[in-house]
Design a protein that fits this description.
The chain is mainly α and about 100 residues long. The chain has three helices and no strands. This is Integral membrane protein.
Length: about 100
């Protein structure tokens, strides 16, 4: 007897439906968050950490707004937390325009 094989459409889709936009936003938010968090530990990279943190926060916020599964939200929260930490440390080290304006 042949069993119906369930095809997993996504790593984050627990409902069996494809969610390409939500998965992309979750991945981008996580990558931006890691980049912002790591670069925030080097004060000379405050422009990189503050801008990637800000974009990661905005991307993660929109991703949370349209996410459909718990796994997507979990990855988004990890990325949002790292983005926020990188953003705040980047702001403390010189900000978005530190040294470029004024």
């Amino acid at each position: 007897m042949a069993q119906a094989a369930q095809r997993q459409t996504s790593l984050f889709a627990t409902d069996g439906k494809p969610h390409p936009l939500q998965d992309t936003l979750a991945g981008v938010t996580l990558v931006l968050g890691v980049l912002a968090f790591v670069s925030a530990w080097f004060p000379s990279l405050h422009l990189l950490s503050s801008w990637t943190g800000l974009v990661g926060i905005l991307t993660g916020g929109y991703g949370q707004f349209i996410s459909e599964t718990t796994r997507e939200r979990f990855v988004l929260i990890l990325g949002l937390g790292a983005s926020a930490a990188g953003f705040f440390l980047g702001m403390a080290h010189g900000g978005l325009f530190g040294g470029l304006i004024g």
